[in-house]
């Protein structure tokens, strides 16, 4: 736990510069060069021989060759047609390719499968190349490939394809041999394979703005080479599974349980969970139970209980159900286990389990003219100058939390921030997020009792306007809404909401009521706001909504569930 929330982390490296994408035609090369330098400096002790060799070769290239390589890296796949490598700022592609070929970074005679040819060439080009082998040249491209597959079932070099096709090929093809190395460098820089190099351009053009967080020597995604290899191994297994590969083969390639890395074990657990869900859908229930038991995914235990129930193994299901209620991974798991347990009791001939009666929730029923939006219809019906109503759903409480606790969320802790394009800390959804920042959050939430919370939120709203945040959706929070929220929402209720939110961010930042009505002129001591969940005809409360409403009711917070019926014979407004 960090006990110094006001301390500033030292910065061992300058902030990464971003090229001017509007005025510099080689902006992408500048950005990629920055990534290579950043990774080579911060991961020098973890780079393998292949990565070091690539960095050395890349840095020795002439500028046009560097630029062409980066252009290929930023495109899809690793095979490229020469006639498509045309860039004004690079000049003649053959000249730029010469140095890449000399350095072994490009293969001029790659082996290509028929499928790869079909990815590279158009239907018309393929018909011209294979016209001597096609009986139905007017077919769609997919049918043409199906017709040729039995004949051409092996990967061939480009020259061999020219020979067997018997017709001129539409363009020569080269292969970038270092695509996987560049992907690993991207992984080390971003800490994930979700973000692309286009993040630089989005930041440069002001489309995305990110909080500036100091980087220290241990501010990196991976602390060991083993973790990099494990990440890649898990990612590869997921891709193979999603591509339809044999589950047993994928499981054999998946690393064993990772006791020394919570976040990598969570990624591994998601792969196992996906496989288990697939087996369950296919009716392989016993296999699904085995895979769910190996996964630490947040929903794995509940799915395992449900499958055991389907298998008639009620005693095993009940034992797990009790575990889920006594030591739940989340409120959602406890809620679902409580719903399943009575069925298991009936199946085993046991008495119905006792259930704590929920706190009563205010209900209202409205009959309104038909509208395309039930929330908008209710808002317009209830809204008045004395009691304005806003559609906020999950945005308002999340935003107030994000603004009040900004420095806790963006605290420069080891492993949280390691590149300049993060909208939030890397461990936001991990169990250690709150414990590692408990002192920071204590410091921030203390403002609610100190009476400085309103001023602090206003200041953050002005200072941080437009900066990416996992909690603040700037388009949903204007100054009028913020002013009423700060005036009417009691700090005691804010503390309760915020404490609930931070204990399970993944589950609790959704499910909040749709509308909020403020009573700025209410007399002293009475409620100055009301949260309203809207349900149209046939609509029912979702589980996360039930949990939020029950929480509010349990703490005497004004919350209402509004059920709407449409007036008969009304046209759409």
UniProtKB/TrEMBL annotation:
Its cofactor is Mg(2+); Mn(2+). It comes from Kushneria marisflavi. Coiled coil: none annotated. It holds the Pfam family FANC_SAP. This is phosphodiesterase I. It comes from the Bacteria. InterPro entries: Fan1-like (IPR033315), FAN1-like_WH (IPR049125), FAN1_SAP_bact (IPR040603), TPR-like_helical_dom_sf (IPR011990), tRNA_endonuc-like_dom_sf (IPR011856), VRR_NUC (IPR014883). Its EC number is 3.1.4.1.
């Amino acid at each position: 736990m960090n006990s110094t929330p006001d301390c500033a982390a030292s910065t061992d490296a300058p902030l990464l510069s971003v090229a001017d994408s509007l005025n510099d035609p080689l902006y992408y090369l500048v950005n990629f060069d920055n990534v290579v330098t950043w990774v080579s400096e911060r991961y020098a002790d973890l780079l393998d021989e292949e990565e070091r060799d690539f960095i050395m070769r890349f840095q020795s290239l002439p500028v046009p060759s560097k630029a062409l390589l980066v252009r290929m890296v930023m495109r899809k796949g690793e095979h490229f047609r020469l006639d498509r490598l045309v860039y004004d700022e690079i000049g003649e592609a053959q000249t730029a390719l010469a140095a890449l070929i000399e350095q072994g970074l490009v293969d001029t005679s790659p082996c290509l499968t028929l499928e790869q040819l079909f990815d590279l060439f158009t239907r018309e080009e393929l018909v011209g190349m294979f016209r001597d082998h096609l009986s139905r040249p007017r077919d769609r491209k997919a049918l043409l490939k199906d017709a040729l597959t039995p004949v051409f079932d092996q990967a061939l070099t480009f020259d061999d394809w020219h020979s067997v096709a018997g017709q001129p090929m539409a363009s020569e093809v080269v292969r970038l041999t270092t695509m996987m190395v560049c992907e690993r460098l991207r992984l080390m820089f971003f800490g994930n394979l979700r973000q692309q190099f286009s993040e630089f351009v989005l930041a440069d053009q002001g489309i995305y703005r990110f909080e500036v967080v100091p980087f220290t020597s241990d501010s990196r995604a991976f602390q060991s080479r083993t973790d990099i290899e494990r990440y890649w191994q898990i990612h590869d297994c997921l891709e193979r599974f999603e591509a339809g590969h044999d589950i047993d083969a994928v499981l054999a390639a998946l690393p064993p349980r990772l006791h020394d890395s919570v976040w990598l074990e969570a990624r591994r657990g998601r792969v196992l969970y996906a496989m288990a869900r697939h087996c369950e859908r296919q009716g392989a229930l016993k296999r699904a139970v085995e895979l769910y038991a190996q996964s630490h995914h947040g929903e794995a235990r509940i799915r395992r209980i449900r499958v055991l129930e389907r298998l008639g193994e009620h005693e095993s299901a009940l034992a797990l159900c009790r575990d889920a209620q006594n030591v739940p991974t989340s409120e959602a798991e406890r809620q679902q286990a409580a719903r399943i347990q009575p069925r298991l009791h009936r199946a085993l001939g046991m008495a119905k389990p006792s259930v704590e009666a929920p706190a009563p929730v205010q209900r209202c029923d409205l009959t309104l003219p038909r509208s395309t939006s039930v929330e908008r219809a209710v808002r317009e019906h209830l809204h008045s100058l004395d009691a304005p109503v806003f559609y906020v759903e999950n945005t308002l409480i999340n935003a107030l939390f994000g603004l009040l606790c900004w420095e806790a969320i963006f605290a420069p802790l080891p492993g949280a921030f390691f590149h300049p394009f993060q909208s939030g800390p890397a461990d936001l959804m991990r169990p250690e997020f709150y414990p590692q920042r408990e002192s920071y959050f204590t410091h921030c939430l203390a403002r609610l009792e100190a009476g400085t919370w309103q001023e602090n939120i206003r200041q953050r709203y002005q200072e941080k306007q437009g900066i990416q945040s996992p909690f603040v959706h700037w388009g949903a929070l204007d100054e009028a809404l913020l002013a009423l929220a700060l005036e009417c929402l009691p700090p005691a209720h804010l503390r309760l909401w915020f404490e609930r939110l931070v204990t399970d961010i993944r589950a609790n930042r959704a499910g909040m009521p749709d509308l909020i009505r403020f009573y700025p002129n209410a007399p002293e001591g009475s409620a100055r706001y009301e949260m309203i969940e809207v349900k149209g005809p046939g609509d029912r409360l979702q589980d996360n909504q039930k949990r939020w409403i029950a929480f509010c009711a349990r703490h005497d917070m004004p919350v209402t569930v509004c059920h709407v019926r449409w007036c008969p014979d009304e046209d759409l407004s």
